[in-house]
Hints:
By secondary structure, this protein is an alpha+beta fold. The protein has helices spanning 2-19, 40-44, 48-52, 65-77, 123-152, 171-177, 181-184, 195-211, 256-277, 297-303, 307-311, 326-339, 381-420, 428-466, 478-492, 514-531, 562-567, 590-600; strands at residues 23-27, 33-36, 82-90, 96-106, 114-121, 156-160, 166-169, 215-222, 228-239, 245-254, 282-286, 292-295, 341-350, 356-367, 372-379, 474-477, 498-501, 509-512, 538-545, 548-555, 605-609, 615-622.
Amino acid sequence: MSLEVSTHSDRRFRALIEHSTDAIALLTPDGTVTYASPSIERVLGYSPQEFMTINGFAVIHPGDLPSLAHTFQHLLAIPGLVATQQVRSRHKDGTWRWVEATMTNLVHDPDVQAVVTTLHDITERKQAEEKLKALAEQTEESEQRFRLLADGAPVMIWTSGIDKLCTYFNAPWLAFTGRTLEQELGNGWVEGVHPADMQRCLDIYTFSFDARTPFSMDYRLRRCDGQYRWILDNGIPFYTSDGTFTGYIGSCIDITERRRLEQQLQYSEQKLRTLVESNIFGVTVSDTTGRIYETNERFAQMVGYSRDEMLSGAVTWRQLVPPDYQEMQAQIDRTILSTGVMPPREKEYLHKDGRRVPVLVAGAMIDQQRGLALVVILDISERKEAERRKQEFQSMVSHELRTPLTSIMGLIDLALMQIDLRPRSLPPEAEALLGQIEKTLKRADGQVEIETRLVEELLEASRLETRKFELSVHPENLVTIVQETVANQQQAARTRHIELVLPPDELVPVIADAGRVGQVLTNYLTNALKYAPVDQPVSVRLEVTGTVARVSVRDLGPGLTPEQQHRVWERFYQVAAPEHQGPDGGLGLGLAIARAIVEQHQGQVGVESAPGQGSTFWFTLPLS
Ligand code: ADP
């Protein structure tokens, strides 16, 4: 019975061993296999018989062998000890298989006399583990890569987890705030946000986070130096490749400077707009073809068109330029194209109704590539009208004054003639009286002459303005003109000493209006005689250098400061100092007229002087 039982249980045991997925092998201390269960074929591909011809250690991976040998030695030392080790074993097909070997030292057991080793195939588990490890390594690596990238980025970067708390800030962020990562993590970063922006900032963040939508917000963040800087923060929800939401990632840049520039731009744009829309003057933006892209109401009104008409392209500003201004316009075009600016010029535009509008125009190129210019236009009709009326008045007054002056002069001459032709037989008292009257009349004559000259100058000044100043030029000898003028002046001022220095050549040919050139020299001479002390000589010099003749008048009068030298050529300018005021109280017109005459002859005028050192007034004329 006991044998029966024994046989039965033995069979059961065998069946268990033979059908188990794990293989069982019995190894002697030197590794010889004394038994291998059939499952060895499932685990390592060998049949039990084949396996029993191999040493158990021969199939172990060389890398795992030392540690296995070590464990085995240790195991052999302690009877009954159980040890487990994972090793790679070579399958019959040549591949390596992971097996978990559980070894029990039953060498001392007389029935067994071996190390009982169960071999459990863990290749799949190992592979899965390895995959997981590789994945973890990969994740770690990509995380590291991300941080490396983020730390080197020129922007500040943060990330947050699904609980909205921040999990990371890159090096630029920490450098900006001057705080540690630990201080910033979670909600720590909010401490650096300006109190006035904090709530808005949190609201946007929370709202977007819950909706999983990207956001963009600006707020002031305290920099490490304590200064609040404007930050633009762009956040986006972040998902893994399998679509799992992992939180937000955000990038921030300092936009303080940009905001300042924008504000400044806005401010200057506003300033310009206000000015343009004030309609104090006309403003247009147009190109060189004449197309108008922008215009304000003022300019439209000035030329009688509606803004729509102008902006639609129906009217170009070129159409507004009268034919006689085309040449000037071409010159303006050239200037603005080459220099980018158009200095103020007076011209006229044609009004829709055909009349002309006097304007002052100035501008600057604002887009060289497209040829766009900003032009400012000032309506000067009123000023021009006032000028015209002033000139009209001036010339009318001059004419009106001249006529009676001529008669007065004639009458005085007649009276003087009558005195001259008086009977010889007059009583001495009458003779004396007539002598007195003659003197008085001559004095009156002198005064009338001064008056006539002033009126003459006034007339000339209005001619200058209206450009009615005409010359009658002929080939002339400048020597003759100078000689005659000096002689006339000497005649009029007999007591004065006028020195004359002429060039060796007797002929200095010029094309000129002799009367006018004489007038210029007369003016220089009368001034010199008027302003210099009576006991001092005045010298007149005519020289020729190259193709230019130069006439100069030197006096030893009060002289002029540089500012006065500059201003004496202006109309109506007179030096205020008493030594500069002549006995006849001039009008300050003589030098302005002289300059206009000389310039019309293509010559130049000038003065060399210093206070207390006298003056030399000169003019040049081109030789013919
Ligand atoms: P007017 O002599 O009629 O005042 P001008 O145009 O001839 O007008 O001269 C302008 C001013 O320049 C004079 O008023 C005088 O103050 C100054 N000026 C002209 N010539 C001289 C000179 N030779 N010496 C000093 N001052 C002079």
